[in-house]
Amino acid sequence: MTSVMPRSKAAPAPFTGDTKQLERRLAKAKTSLILEHPFVGTIALNMRFEITEDVPTAATNGKCIKFNPSFIDPLCDEQLKFLVGHECFHPMFEHNYRRGGRDHGKWNRACDYVINHHLVEERIGKFIDGGCLDPNIFKAGGGSSDGIYNILPDEGGDEGGEAYDDCEDGGDTPAEQAQAQAEMKVSVAQAAQAAKMMGKLSANMERLVSEVLSPKVNWVDVLRHFMQRATTNERSYARPNRRFFSRGHYLPGPSGQTMGPLVFAVDCSGSITAQQIAQAAGEVSAVFEDFEPAALHVVYFDSEVCHYDTFERGEEPTIKPHGGGGTAFSPVFRHIAEHDIEPSACVFLTDLYCSDFGPEPDYPVLWVSDGADEAPFGEVVKWG
Questions:
Q1: 225 falls in which pLDDT band (50, 70, 90)?
Q2: Mapping DSSP to helix (H, G, I), strand (E, B) and coil, where does residue 201 land?
Q3: What element of type H or E holds 10?
Q4: Dihedrals φ, ψ of 103, to 5°?
Q5: Contact indicator for 89, 62 with CB cutoff of 8 Å
Q6: In the beta sheet, which residues pair with residue 65?
Q7: pLDDT tens digits, residue range 118-157?
Q8: pLDDT tens profile 335-383
Q9: What's 349's DSSP letter?
Q10: Smallest Cα–Cα separation from 370: which of 262, 267, 284, 227?
Q11: What Å distances lie between residue 69 and 13, 49, 80, 280, CA to CA?
Q12: Cβ of 196: how many Cβ atoms within 10 Å?
């Protein structure tokens, strides 16, 4: 994960200075962090430093931090301390392990906005001009890399300068990344304990550590896992295409990446606020754009289906509530069956206060709940 501060696609001039002097300065920055900000310093202590011209500024994969000598040479000691802290925060926030299929540069920018905000708040070193720092973007994205990613434009915008695509994942395979992520959690817990013993763990950092060690489940991440599981170009008779049953044909259906339709069911009985629906609409639109399911079916329901819209690939979905009566879930499943929709997943936005679920369908169901936390089938994830 790059620091990209400041961002430039132009390669720095070859370094002709004293590399040994830079190594001593980096060691000094690490020592200063251990004494002044022991939480960050302890994480830095467990990471290898390397001076190389292979990166334009600085980068990390969670185990090693690479520094371009031409970039760090003109930095003052406080800026160098900021840069070391910045790179340590990437694996601490698990940025190296959960990018997934998101755009490298855009994900990196989103992560930088989060890190730089907290470094400035904690007064760790001196911010390097040209980096990603904007309290309005931080707030609009909910203070999270995932939220900021969703509101940032694609590469080429001028809100944070130009970015180069140099993000380093924390492993070549999901298993390697999961292992590195688990190891980093141990390092974060040890670093927090060390800082606490020295009386130098701020309330803000303690909160952030708690979120890292005991994260809330993000329903959007769960939805993405649903879609990833449902993504394959293979077809199988194990899940036949029901669309052709009435014509006497028994044909194979998608075994789960052809990306079938996605159904998004919105509870309009009054239990979900307009603000929540607007937020969910943005998240579902992002998933629709990223995974390109065959279609997005938006079903509005209370005690019956009040309204529904269908959006094809390339269309911009609009989601706004309809209806306002009681609550029943079975009409949604009947609607899906009656319209021959074979969804890769069906997502309900509801408070789950209802007993009319109907029979369990043969496709994944995700209940995003603002109320109850149990359902007779499917997976329940709490809102927020």
A1: confident
A2: coil
A3: none
A4: -60, 130
A5: no
A6: 49, 60
A7: 999 999 999 999 889 999 999 888 888 888 988 888 764 4
A8: 999 999 999 889 998 889 888 999 999 998 999 888 888 899 998 888 7
A9: E
A10: 267
A11: 10, 12, 12, 44
A12: 15
| Percentage of the chain lying above the pLDDT 70 cut | 83
Half-sphere exposure at residue 193, Cβ-oriented, CA atoms within 13 angstroms:
7
> What whole-number distance in Å separates Cα of residue 156 and Cα of residue 158?
7
Q: Which domains does the chain have, with CATH numbers?
A: 19-215 (no CATH), 220-382 (3.40.50)
Check if the beta carbon of residue 343 is closer than 8 Å to that of residue 261.
Answer: yes
Among 139, 28, 44, which residue's Cα sits nearest to residue 79? 28
Yes or no: say if 6 and 58 are a contact pair by the CB < 8 Å rule.
Answer: no
8 A C-beta contact, residue 109 and residue 154: no
Q: What is the amino acid identity at position 157? A: G
- The CB density around residue 21, as the number of other CB atoms within 10 Å, is 11
H-helix or E-strand spanning residue 280: helix 274-291
Tell me how far apart the alpha carbons of residues 227 and 283 are, in angstroms, rounded to a whole number: 13
Tell me which amino acid residue 51 is. Answer: I
In 111-201, DSSP assigns E strands to none
Candidates 77, 75, 78, 45; CA nearest to 63 is: 45
The amino acid present at 262, given as its one-letter code, is L
Q: Which two tokens stand for residue 336?
A: 């899906």
How many Å is the maximal CA-CA distance in the chain?
Answer: 79
Q: What tokens were used for 211?
A: 């979120």
109: exposed, middle or buried (Cβ count in 10 Å: 0-12, 13-18, 19+):
buried
pLDDT tens digits, residue range 187-204? 999 999 989 989 999 998
Strand partners for 26 = none
Cβ neighbours of residue 224 closer than 8 Å, sequence gap 6 or more: 100, 287, 290, 291
Alpha carbon distances (Å) from 94 to 113, 305, 364: 15, 41, 28
Nearest partner of 245 among 118, 340, 121, 323, judged by Cα: 340
C-beta separation of 347 from 335 below 8 A: no
Q: How far is CA 54 from the centre of its chain?
A: 27
CB proximity list for 272: less than 8 A, separation 6 or greater: 266, 321, 349, 350, 351, 370
- CA torsion 309-218-103-178 (nearest 10°) is -140
